[in-house]
Amino acid sequence: MKTLSNRITNLPVSSIRKLIPLADEAKKQGTIIYHLNMGQPDVKSPEVMIDALKSWNQNPISYAPSGGTPEYLSALEQYYHGLGFQFISIQNIIGTIAGSEAINMAMFATCDPGDEILVFEPYYSSYQTSAQLWGVNLVPIQTDITQGFHLPDRDTIESQITPKTKALLYSSPGNPTGTVYTSDEVKLLKDIVKKHNLYIIADEVYREYAFIDRPHVSLLEFMQEIPDQAILIDSLSKRYNLCGARLGCLVSLNTELLKSALKFAMSRLSGGLIDQHIGAQLTKVPETYIEEIQEEYRLRRDLMYKGLQSIPGVTVSLPEGAFYIMAELPVEDAEAFCIWLLEEYRDNNETVMMAPGYGFYKNPEAGKKQVRIAYVLEKPKLQRTIEILTKALRAYKNLEN
Ligand SMILES: Cc1ncc(COP(=O)(O)O)c(C=O)c1O
């Protein structure tokens, strides 16, 4: 047998998914597990989208145009117009197989192997996987839990730029931090890429989930100033609780880039035709749908933040958006603690599953004591997870000593 490629062998396994076999084993033994480990919302998809799925009557189910169906693209166009960005037209949008493909597309279209992309650490772990797929080096710039994971100063960011730097990539609201960059921060990033002639890739898949007094600031606000450099990554997964429909897009004003990205889209022929039909209903989703979810997540965020703060030795900063909290735990190795929770610890036959923080760092040591918590459970369940974690950390401390 020939060996498998080094590049596939070297791809990291997501720290989020790695513990799943342990959870499965615990469930087999009858243990109830509260899943705080995955960003899979527990909220229902919009009724109008489910109805569109039920009434599907096109036979055969054909390919869709590689860059997206006209009805899906025009629904996205309307969505951006609704946000106030009238300059976006369907020509600026490529429909993708969710945000994940848009990230791959953006990296592939902008970088050659050996090129570098700046990211703010901790960052969404799939950025690393995508970068490795294309031979791109992610260059992490540290942010700090005590500063709410906000950006470091301009000099610190600029000091990481080399002749190989092609792009700067960020998510706001952020996964795993929940941080929402201020207008000044987004402007700073825009100024830096403008000065150094870099691409800027903004991942705004959590755009609607910002729980702050100031508005969320989109890269779209600056897109016309840097039309050839700005790339937006978007997704319907979280906004409409459609994670399994695989719907997203890449938005840019750079026609050369769009033309090239379309070649990437053509390589997989088509996105899902039925998925896009579902996605095209987004303009019919009542505003109250998102508003109710926003309110629910805000309450959950408050509950988790206060709950985690009340546990001795735990450090958290108030997340401003998305549905994640990074917490630093009073343990030597947070992954070992997560494994212990799944393998050994039970409170009334219940336990908690979290994502070890190291998976969100290029240097795993930096996130060794941290976990990412996704508050995608109903409030009474979240309350119970705080109770379990409090007791578990006490018991673990005794074991460590
Ligand atoms: C920051 C961020 N970007 C992109 C994605 C990709 O999601 P999808 O491929 O479902 O759009 C995720 C998923 O968790 C995410 O957290």
Description:
The chain has 401 residues and is an alpha/beta fold. The protein has 2 domains: 6-44 and 288-400, Aspartate Aminotransferase, domain 1, CATH 3.90.1150.10; 47-284, Type I PLP-dependent aspartate aminotransferase-like (Major domain) (Aspartate Aminotransferase, domain 2, 3-Layer(aba) Sandwich), CATH 3.40.640. Helix content is 38%, strand content 15%. It has helices at 6-9, 20-28, 47-54, 70-82, 98-110, 126-133, 154-158, 183-196, 220-223, 255-267, 273-279, 287-309, 334-343, 379-400; strands at residues 32-35, 93-96, 116-121, 137-142, 165-171, 199-203, 230-235, 248-252, 315-316, 324-328, 350-353, 355-356, 370-374. Strand 6 (199-203), helix 9 and strand 7 form a beta-alpha-beta unit. The protein is globular, with a radius of gyration of 21 Å. The structure holds pyridoxal-5'-phosphate.
Strand order of the largest sheet: 2-8-7-6-5-3-4
The major β-sheet equals: 7 strands, mixed
Using the coordinates above, name the CATH class of the largest domain: Alpha Beta
Approximately how much helix is present in the residues? 25-40%
Amino- and carboxy-terminal Cα gap: 49 Å
The tally of structural domains comes to 2
Query: Any guess at the CATH architecture of the largest domain?
Result: 3-Layer(aba) Sandwich
Task: Please write the string of helix (H) and strand (E) elements.
Answer: HHEHHEHEHEHEHEHEEHHHEEHEEEH
Low-confidence stretches: none
Beta fraction: 15-25%
Instruction: Name the CATH homologous superfamily of the largest domain.
Output: Type I PLP-dependent aspartate aminotransferase-like (Major domain)
CATH topology of the largest domain: Aspartate Aminotransferase, domain 2
Mean pLDDT: 96
Structural class: alpha/beta
Radius of gyration: 21 Å
Number of helices: 14
Number of strands: 13
Bound molecules: pyridoxal-5'-phosphate
Which overall shape is indicated by the principal axes computed on the Cα atoms? globular
